[in-house]
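FYI - complex with magnesium ion, inputs then prediction.
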Amino acid sequence: MILRELSAVNFKNFLGVEITLNPKINCFVGNNGEGKTTILDAIYYLSFCKSFLNPIDSQNINYNDAFFVLQGEYERSGKTERIYCGLKKGQKKVFKRNKKEYEKLSDHIGLFPLVIISPSDSDLITFGSDLRRKFLDGIISQFDSVYLENLLIYSKAVNQRNALLKYFQKNRTFNQDQLDSWDNQLVKYGEVLYEKRKKLIQELTPVFQRYYNQISGGREQVELVYQSQLMEGDFLKQLRNSLPEDMRKLFSTVGVHKDDLVFQISGRPIKKFGSQGQQKSFLIALKLAQLEFLKNTVGIHPILLLDDVFDKLDEDRVAHILEMVNGNTFGQIFLSDTHPKRIEDILSRLKLESSVFEVSNLEIQKR
Ligand SMILES: Nc1ncnc2c1ncn2[C@@H]1O[C@H](COP(=O)(O)OP(=O)(O)OP(=O)(O)O)[C@@H](O)[C@H]1O
Ligand SMILES: [Mg+2]
């Protein structure tokens, strides 16, 4: 899949830009705050119907205006596709594919697959399990729409069960039938989520390890370890056994909403024992594995966004990563960098097909 043209009107600092893109590598260079990440975010928006930076849609509208419009012209499975996204202050977001408005935005997710590597990926290591579950859920949802529906039903059932526990305590009452109905829902949907997460991690792991070895030169062993209480035995039985504790804590302590994905290096948690460079390489390998997995699953080359990934890496590593992502597994690539000279030197040395765009003063110019 290739994004041929991109236009943005009143999207953050860009009042009106229109660019024709390179089918392989596109570099956006410029000083801090000029809008390099914003351009990548506009491309992300067209795939996911939301920003990867700012979850409040209206804050992506230019300060001085009341609407934004993003448009992308793609080539996908041999066909031209036009995606439109418009947002007016105080109104619902409008998303169209070839002039036809979507009934549900979720129908669009996954059609234009995309993977982003950005500085905020480090949150996956440093923050709690919630983000790592979201990471897994995000990958699966891009190719399995039933998964997302199951996840929503499951999350609702957990909330309802928690509310019921509070109701029992407040009113000094108890009703096994009511509890059973939520427990059955948790088991029905939770087990599906568990199996799909387990399968994804099994398939992702060898690809991830291969990329990590390529980046690091095979110096240390890395592992993705799935932790779920559902591995410890019958889910329904565990829910029943946890009832006294759940009643005390007033929330459900057992289920896939407690799952985690532990990142290990040489058998130890990378959060505590990995160097900064090892952590960075780990995250890049993880995202590249996600991309390869997606490509094999959906049969479309996802777009790859690399936001500030080369920051703090030496020239050899940058060249190495660029060579890697230029291979056949990868499709179109967009990257941002504050060092135009360095990136241009590497691109010409490696003879990579590319365009470099200068982002400054609210404009984007091909260099
Ligand atoms: N709603 C908005 N309206 C207008 N400008 C905005 C809005 N939101 C953010 N901006 C500005 O848009 C600019 C673009 O920021 P962006 O993050 O894209 O810069 P960047 O080129 O990636 O910089 P860096 O090299 O620091 O990462 C910033 O100057 C920011 O203050
Ligand atoms: Mg940036």
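The pocket of adenosine-5'-triphosphate (ligand 1) is lined by residues 12-13, 30, 32-38, 59-63, 308, 336, 338 (CB under 6 Å). Residues 169 and 323 are 61 Å apart (CA to CA).
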